[in-house]
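Input sequence (108 aa), recorded before submission:
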Amino acid sequence: MNPTRGILVAGNWKMNHAPAGTHAFFQDLHAHMDPAVRAALGLQLRGALFVPAISLATGLEGRGSLPLFIGAQNVHWEKAGAFTGEISGPMLTELGVSWALVGHSERR
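Predicted structure, C-alpha coordinate format:
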Protein backbone atom coordinates (compact mmCIF):
# COMPACT_ATOMS: atom_id res chain seq x y z
CA MET A 1 0.00 0.00 0.00
CA ASN A 2 1.12 3.53 -0.72
CA PRO A 3 0.57 5.66 2.42
CA THR A 4 0.83 8.94 0.50
CA ARG A 5 -2.36 8.51 -1.57
CA GLY A 6 -5.99 8.56 -0.55
CA ILE A 7 -7.44 9.06 2.90
CA LEU A 8 -5.66 7.76 6.00
CA VAL A 9 -7.55 7.23 9.25
CA ALA A 10 -5.39 6.22 12.22
CA GLY A 11 -6.10 5.18 15.78
CA ASN A 12 -4.00 4.39 18.82
CA TRP A 13 -5.40 1.60 20.97
CA LYS A 14 -3.50 2.76 24.05
CA MET A 15 -3.50 -0.07 26.63
CA ASN A 16 -6.51 -1.91 25.19
CA HIS A 17 -6.99 -5.24 23.41
CA ALA A 18 -4.59 -8.03 24.28
CA PRO A 19 -4.19 -10.71 21.56
CA ALA A 20 -7.62 -12.32 22.20
CA GLY A 21 -9.36 -8.94 22.03
CA THR A 22 -7.39 -8.03 18.91
CA HIS A 23 -8.44 -11.27 17.25
CA ALA A 24 -12.11 -10.63 18.14
CA PHE A 25 -11.86 -7.04 16.85
CA PHE A 26 -10.61 -8.19 13.44
CA GLN A 27 -13.21 -10.94 13.18
CA ASP A 28 -15.91 -8.34 13.77
CA LEU A 29 -14.30 -5.87 11.38
CA HIS A 30 -14.10 -8.44 8.58
CA ALA A 31 -17.73 -9.36 9.16
CA HIS A 32 -18.87 -5.74 8.78
CA MET A 33 -16.53 -4.26 6.15
CA ASP A 34 -17.90 -4.39 2.61
CA PRO A 35 -15.21 -3.70 -0.02
CA ALA A 36 -17.88 -3.20 -2.69
CA VAL A 37 -19.29 -0.22 -0.83
CA ARG A 38 -15.83 1.31 -0.46
CA ALA A 39 -15.15 0.82 -4.18
CA ALA A 40 -18.54 2.32 -5.11
CA LEU A 41 -17.70 5.46 -3.15
CA GLY A 42 -14.51 5.84 -5.14
CA LEU A 43 -12.45 6.36 -2.00
CA GLN A 44 -8.99 5.07 -1.40
CA LEU A 45 -9.51 4.64 2.30
CA ARG A 46 -6.65 3.28 4.36
CA GLY A 47 -6.31 2.88 8.07
CA ALA A 48 -3.52 2.57 10.58
CA LEU A 49 -3.95 0.93 13.95
CA PHE A 50 -1.28 1.38 16.58
CA VAL A 51 -1.77 -1.62 18.84
CA PRO A 52 -0.07 -2.76 22.06
CA ALA A 53 3.21 -4.58 21.50
CA ILE A 54 1.77 -7.92 22.62
CA SER A 55 -0.92 -7.63 19.92
CA LEU A 56 1.28 -6.70 16.94
CA ALA A 57 1.52 -10.23 15.51
CA THR A 58 -2.20 -10.82 16.02
CA GLY A 59 -3.01 -7.50 14.35
CA LEU A 60 -0.78 -8.23 11.35
CA GLU A 61 -2.43 -11.60 10.89
CA GLY A 62 -5.94 -10.40 11.64
CA ARG A 63 -6.01 -7.52 9.15
CA GLY A 64 -5.90 -10.00 6.28
CA SER A 65 -6.40 -8.15 3.01
CA LEU A 66 -7.89 -5.04 4.61
CA PRO A 67 -6.14 -1.77 3.70
CA LEU A 68 -4.72 -1.36 7.19
CA PHE A 69 -1.25 -0.58 8.44
CA ILE A 70 -0.47 -2.11 11.82
CA GLY A 71 1.92 0.02 13.83
CA ALA A 72 3.73 -0.08 17.14
CA GLN A 73 2.95 2.39 19.89
CA ASN A 74 6.61 3.12 20.44
CA VAL A 75 10.05 2.32 19.05
CA HIS A 76 13.45 2.71 20.69
CA TRP A 77 16.21 4.52 18.79
CA GLU A 78 18.87 1.88 19.55
CA LYS A 79 19.05 -1.36 17.54
CA ALA A 80 19.71 -3.47 20.65
CA GLY A 81 20.87 -3.15 24.22
CA ALA A 82 19.90 -3.10 27.86
CA PHE A 83 16.61 -1.21 27.45
CA THR A 84 14.06 -3.17 29.46
CA GLY A 85 10.62 -3.24 27.89
CA GLU A 86 11.63 -1.36 24.74
CA ILE A 87 11.29 -2.52 21.13
CA SER A 88 13.81 -1.65 18.44
CA GLY A 89 13.22 -0.81 14.79
CA PRO A 90 14.90 -4.03 13.62
CA MET A 91 12.66 -6.06 15.93
CA LEU A 92 9.57 -4.42 14.44
CA THR A 93 10.86 -4.89 10.91
CA GLU A 94 11.46 -8.60 11.55
CA LEU A 95 7.85 -8.89 12.68
CA GLY A 96 6.60 -7.06 9.58
CA VAL A 97 5.76 -3.73 11.23
CA SER A 98 6.89 -0.59 9.42
CA TRP A 99 4.92 2.08 11.30
CA ALA A 100 5.39 3.39 14.85
CA LEU A 101 4.30 6.31 16.97
CA VAL A 102 7.28 8.33 18.12
CA GLY A 103 7.28 11.04 20.76
CA HIS A 104 3.74 10.46 22.01
CA SER A 105 3.05 12.66 25.04
CA GLU A 106 2.60 9.66 27.34
CA ARG A 107 6.07 8.35 26.40
CA ARG A 108 8.00 11.59 26.89
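Checked by second reader. The first strand starts at residue 7 and ends at 12.
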